[in-house]
Design a protein that fits this description.
Layout (H helix, E strand, L loop, with lengths): L12 E2 L17 E10 L2 E9 L5 E8 L6 E2 L21 E9 L2 E10 L2 E9 L6 E5 L5 E6 L8 E7 L7 E6 L6 E7 L10 E4 L4 E3 L2 E12 L2 E11 L7 E4 L10 H4 L7 E8 L4 E8 L3 E8 H6 L4
Antiparallel strand pairs: 1-21, 2-3, 3-4, 4-5, 6-7, 7-8, 8-9, 10-11, 11-12, 12-13, 14-16, 15-16, 16-17, 17-18, 19-20, 20-21
Bound molecules: beta-D-mannopyranose.
């Protein structure tokens, strides 16, 4: 019997059929497929995936599934970098890492717009994942990993993001009256010396309301002589005042262990961009692996909440 040198235990359980999307599944030539954000729309699983084209810049394509595991990728890209209008000059090097949140009947997508002027968070909306409408650039350069809360808190829309500041890379929280104008920003979660997330942290999955608080699945990096290792962890925020951190996982909930997470364009990366909570309490977390393919891992939401108290 072959021993699996990557073996290990994570709170999230990888689906045995992983990875769920690889280059072979793509109906057109491209470099990689990763960092997709899921929604369940009319009973169907939709995954808006980041595809890096052969020129090296990213765009988004839709994949559809009936069971959340077997996906078919649409033949035409869903959203490509703007080539005219006010967004064009900020998307010259692609659009990356979409995160979808459903608020009051509309899906809002936060994504990273990349250009020679730096990276910024942009906001688009869609009702059906067929047509996307860009709404606004909602950050200055040097900010990414934007995720929207699924409802207003204290009368305001709320987002988490990751301004790079002095290179520290902490998760911040900002508020907005209209989803376009953002401010009232506060530092929420810094990297943690002495743990698995000492270098940088960033929001990953749009916050999930639970009866114990807002569950945020975030990514954290540790720097090594071979580059960063990207792991996923969990933090619980107060429902009424999400600037209050109730619990933060001592250990990651998912670490790169399998070949498809270890080896790729950027090795040692698990990078969630969204999750689906099923009616029976199972959570499916969708993540990019090694910046090269898409994978999914599951847990009971209640087990994930347990991890907070460790
Ligand atoms: C982050 C983002 C992600 C990427 C990750 C690992 O900074 O750029 O898109 O998956 O790095 O390379």
């Amino acid at each position: 019997m072959t021993r699996n040198r990557w073996g290990g235990r994570d709170l999230l359980h990888r689906w045995e059929g992983n990875p769920i999307l690889i280059l072979e599944d793509m109906p057109f030539p491209c470099n990689t497929v990763f960092n997709g954000t899921p929604v369940k729309h009319d009973g169907e699983y939709l995954l808006l995936i980041r595809v890096e084209g052969q020129r090296g810049y990213s765009f988004f394509t839709l994949a559809r599934s009936e069971d959340g595991y077997h996906f078919t990728v649409m033949k035409k890209p869903a959203m490509v970098p703007a080539t005219n209008g006010p967004f064009a000059k900020y998307e010259t090097r692609g659009i990356e890492d979409p995160r979808a949140t459903f608020i009051d009947g509309t899906y809002y997508i936060l994504y990273t717009a990349v250009s020679e002027h730096g990276y910024r968070i942009a906001l688009a909306q869609t009702d059906d994942f067929e047509k996307f409408e860009r709404i606004a650039m909602i950050s200055e350069p040097g900010n990414k990993d934007g995720v929207l809360f699924p409802e207003k808190v204290g009368g305001y829309y709320v987002r988490l993001d990751r301004p790079l500041g002095l290179g520290v890379g902490s998760i911040w929280l900002s508020r907005s009256p209209d989803l376009i104008n953002w401010g009232d920003s506060e530092m929420l979660l810094p990297p943690r010396a002495g743990y698995w997330d000492p270098f940088r942290v960033g929001a990953s999955v749009p916050p999930i309301r639970t009866d114990k608080g807002w569950l945020e699945i975030y990514h954290g990096t540790k720097m090594t002589s071979a580059g960063p290792i990207y792991r996923a962890g969990a933090v619980m925020l107060d429902i009424e005042d999400p600037t209050i951190v109730l619990h933060r996982c001592m250990v990651p909930i998912l670490s790169p262990r399998e070949d498809y997470e270890r080896i790729g364009d950027v090795g040692n990366v698990v990078f969630p961009c969204g999750a689906i909570v099923e009616p029976d309490g199972e959570i499916k977390v969708y993540y990019g692996a090694a910046d090269t393919c898409m994978a999914v891992a599951t847990a009971n939401l209640s087990d994930l909440l347990e991890c907070q108290t460790e």
